[in-house]
Amino acid sequence: MDDNKQKYRDLCEIEKIIPIFSKDWWLDAVCGDDNWDVVIIEKDGEIVASWPFYIKKSGFNVIAMPRLTQAMGIWISYPNGQKYTKRLAYEKKIFTDLIGRLPQVDMFSQNFHYSITNWLPLYWSGFQQATRYTYVIEDITDLVKVYNNFQSNIKTDIKKAQRTVNCYFDSDIDKFFNTNRLTFERQRMQMPYDIKFLKRLDAACSKRECRKIFYAQDEQGRIHAAIYIIWDEQSAYYLMGGGHPELRSSGATSLLLWKAIQFAATVTKKFDFEGSMIEPVERFFRAFGAVQKPYFSISKANRKMRVCQAVRDLGKALLKG
User: Fold this and answer.
1) 125 DSSP assignment
2) Residue 19: which residues within 8 A CB-CB, separation 6 or more?
3) Same domain for 68 and 128?
4) Are 9 and 125 in a shared domain?
5) How many CA atoms lie within 13 A of 294 on its CB side?
6) Which Pfam family is one of this chain's hits (predicted)?
């Protein structure tokens, strides 16, 4: 599929509506150049649909989500003026064709961008779906309106933090990683990436000038919080964050997100909080006046994988018992 990959790279250069998480350079950074591929459909020498995917190296043949990648999925170029009923029929044809071009794997698991609202052709082809949610401020051009939509607790946090910390930009990725790590340590969770991975991704984003790192620091030099955002033509995304576990009540994260939204308004149209399915995090993001956006988590496993999963689940149950 090398020829397909080069064609897809060319497409990503000209098609601005393809989300950042599906761009070729992003996939190079988070997957490695040799660990992702793409299936495409062409008509009259032009690509009308594409579906990139990450090939995870394991004991099984698996298509999965790369680290720090919210969503991928199918991109379609629709005919101009297409009616809704024709659009659905067109989607069915495109989806079915793309599915037939995917490599045979033991397990497929991929999150689709929330702009994809029709998964029926996948259902008819034996795929399963679970609904997940992100939260998005749809229009960040009117910042007064955006701020007025914040709930009172967010406004209180912002005002409190303004009396305590100073906010600034800094491109030092090691400093961000150390702050980001504190949040995982507080929750006794293993970090899903290391500094080498993060530096590779940061270098790719920095080269394309589509990332910003925000810090909140007090007069004693203590970093209260840090957040990392990225953006494309359509939206900014809250990719990562972290903070000092003993300084969480300062309101610094709320202030940084407000600063990030203000900055994002100068480079794009929307602000995507990237989740979350975790109840306290969902409540926090919702308080910024963001709109709930459902997106599809699509999966399919062959018989061999289903048997292995059943044995694994049984083993866990026996250990608990």
Assistant:
1) T
2) 71, 113, 232, 234, 235
3) yes
4) yes
5) 8
6) Acetyltransf_6
Q: How high is the pLDDT of residue 320?
A: 56
Could you tell me the CA-to-CA distances from 52 to 19, 104, 105, 109, 266 in Å, in that order? 12, 15, 15, 12, 30
Give me the phi and psi of 229, to 5 degrees please.
Answer: -120, 155
* Three-class SS state of 72: strand
Question: In this structure, what token pair is assigned to residue 301?
Answer: 């496993």
Which residue type does 52 have? P
Beta strands in 79-222 (DSSP E): 107-111, 128-137, 166-169, 211-217
- Residues of the domain holding 176: 140-268
Packing angle, helices 152-162 and 252-264, rounded to 10: 100
Please indicate, yes or no, whether residues 12 and 89 belong to a single structural domain of this protein: yes
Residue 165 contacts residue 224 (beta carbons within 8 Å):
yes
Do you know the residue count of the chain?
321
Instruction: For residue 190, give the 3-state DSSP assignment.
Output: coil
Identify the CATH number of the domain in which residue 242 sits.
3.40.630.30
pLDDT tens-digit profile of 16-67? Answer: 999 999 999 999 999 999 999 999 999 999 999 999 999 998 778 999 999 9
CA distance 36 to 53: 6
> Quick one: 25 exposed, middle or buried, by C-beta within 10 A (0-12, 13-18, 19+)?
middle
Q: Which helix (H) or strand (E) holds 113?
A: none
